[in-house]
Write a structure and sequence with these properties.
alpha+beta, Toxin ADP-ribosyltransferase, Chain A, domain 1, five-stranded mixed sheet, three-stranded antiparallel sheet, TPR-like_helical_dom_sf, nucleotidyltransferase, NADP, glycosyltransferase
């Protein structure tokens, strides 16, 4: 379930789960998909003879027109799929991708057959369920705003049965019973829904099934009678065509590019789900014999491992990818510079500065070659030139050659500003690319010790990230850390502290306890706290 402070926006995770769904619906599944799912389910339900029997039946008899029948059977299919969608378990969702697609498509077919029978009249459906108290608090904050259900949503035309469900749930510890009344306008462009009486396993139930990511407006929340743990929540189906959300989703969809699995991997990395991205890329690596694909997967695995703080593994993956690319790519290929730079960054994270410098030097020569090519082939205001100047500036900074770094940063700055100007004309105002540009300009000013300018750009970057990233994403921690650092450099220690604390909170949730970022932020907090005591 998703909601947000801004009442007309859905929280960022909705945007990503929406794309996740699109990617899965788009992927071509091989004939082995049913068999692979059955094998995976046998592992999960080992020792459960009833479920194992059903898994054998599923493998033998399943076809796409029986998708809803299997979904409503409340056996392993229903349990695993809804649990995986709720917690975004990539591994299970990928295995069940074909089933998820079949259920969605069958709902869509029924929706198209049934839509005229509603005669454009609004009607009500009901749902009774339990919510953890913490989730109920979020729901209360969303009153007047939007919320979405990330899984398939079962509702009923039978009011009494739904109230009973809610009452039963309200007696469970730490749970609130919720009786949802959902008002449905069939004329809206929304997620498809259908009466599934004819195709359900339970034909006697008056069930209406909604596909994933149905969006509702929360109209009212009322306590039911004297029961403190039982609430009636009135929802209204709303269009999933929110203008701002669509602009952003379209752009991110475009950038994810590539094939279904590539897009899925990038999406997992973007949302900070490094373990899940690692699982996916490892499977793809095993399945491919194409050398350039292998190099790409190794590089993505290196990126995931670097962000997990497993540096030895990160270097190993990056080097495997680099080795393949050295054999297959021309020597002036900018990708080689990126690979050397990535390896240099990992050594820097490990505090092995001499090795880091040797890789940065290699990266530098490739970045310089790349710049030379770009200067000949690209228009003089092309944003890629800013990237090259910035890369060279970063390498000099990493090598502690600050005077050279500053001269490249100044060039990078003028290109980043040009690049920003282009982006401001072509992108929605809260697009993640703008956050990267603001951050880059902030970093340049920071490196040049122009802290008040750096602060202004860091704050702009943070504002966009807060609108477009999940609240636990490591990139937000980086922004909080940058702002904390600038306040500290300006000797404004009381302002620095809360930013460092927020950075630490995210890092501790997102990174392994030994990660250097955690150590660095803790040290910064210690320094700032001492200064605050001194100045009090």
């Amino acid at each position: 379930m998703a909601s947000t402070e801004n009442l007309n926006q859905l929280e960022p995770t909705f945007m990503y789960t929406q794309l996740f769904k699109e990617i899965l619906l788009d992927i071509e599944y091989g004939h082995k998909a049913i068999q692979d799912l059955a094998t995976c389910c046998r592992d999960v339900f080992a020792g459960n003879s009833i479920e194992l029997q059903l898994i054998n039946e599923f493998e033998r008899d399943y076809h796409s027109q029986k998708a809803i029948w299997w979904y409503t059977r409340e056996c392993f299919t229903y349990k695993m799929l809804n649990h995986a969608l709720r917690i975004m378990d990539a591994d299970i969702i990928i295995n069940m991708g074909f089933f998820l697609r079949d259920v969605h498509q069958q709902i869509q077919q029924l929706y198209e057959q049934q839509i005229s029978s509603y005669r454009r009249k609004t009607f009500e459906v009901y749902r009774g369920q339990g919510l953890m108290e913490s989730d109920f608090e979020k729901l209360q904050k969303a009153k007047g705003g939007l919320m979405s259900f990330n899984n398939f949503l079962s509702t009923s035309k039978d009011k009494e049965v739904s109230v009973e469900f809610a009452q039963r749930a309200s007696t469970e510890p730490n749970k609130v019973g919720i009786f949802f009344i959902m008002s449905i306008d069939p004329c809206l462009k929304s997620t498809p829904f259908a009466s599934i009486k004819e195709v359900s396993y339970f034909k006697e139930e008056e069930e209406v099934l909604f596909s994933m990511h149905t969006v509702f407006r929360v109209n009212a929340i009322k306590q039911m009678g004297s029961m403190t743990q039982l609430y009636q929540v009135e929802l209204e189906l709303t269009s999933d065509d929110d203008q701002q959300l669509r602009l952003l989703t379209d752009r991110i969809r475009e950038e994810a590019g590539g094939t279904g699995w590539h897009r899925l991997g990038k999406l997992l990395l973007t949302t900070g789900q490094f373990n899940k991205a690692e699982e996916l890329y490892s499977v793809l690596l095993e399945q491919t014999s194409d050398e350039s694909e292998k190099a790409y997967y190794y590089s993505q695995l290196g990126y995931a491992k670097d962000h997990q703080g497993d540096y030895e593994k990160a270097i190993w993956y990056y080097e495997q990818g680099l080795e393949i690319n050295q054999k297959t790519l021309p020597t002036n290929q900018p990708y080689l510079a990126t690979a050397y730079n990535s390896i240099g960054n990992v050594y820097k994270n490990m505090a092995d500065y001499s090795k880091a410098v040797s890789f940065y030097e290699k990266a530098l020569s490739f970045h310089e070659k790349a710049l030379e090519i770009k200067q000949k082939t690209l228009p003089s205001n092309h944003p890629d030139l800013a990237t090259s100047y910035n890369n060279i500036g970063n390498v000099y900074k990493n090598m502690a050659d600050y005077s050279k770094a500053v001269s490249f940063y100044e060039k990078a700055l003028s290109f980043h500003e040009k690049s920003l100007e282009i982006e401001q004309k072509t992108l929605p105002s809260n697009h993640p690319s703008l956050a990267i540009s603001y951050n880059n300009i902030g970093l340049v000013y920071d490196s040049m010790e122009e802290y008040s300018k750096a602060l202004s750009y860091y704050e702009k970057a943070l504002e966009i990230k807060q609108k477009t990233l999940p609240s636990s994403h490591p990139s937000l921690a980086t922004s909080f850390n940058n702002i904390g650092w600038v306040h500290r450099s300006m000797k404004d220690y009381s302002k620095a502290l809360p930013y460092y604390e927020r950075a630490l909170d995210i890092y501790q949730h997102a990174l392994p306890p030994t990660h250097p970022n955690i150590k660095d932020v803790k040290e910064s907090i210690e320094i700032v706290e001492k200064e605050n005591i001194k100045n009090s």
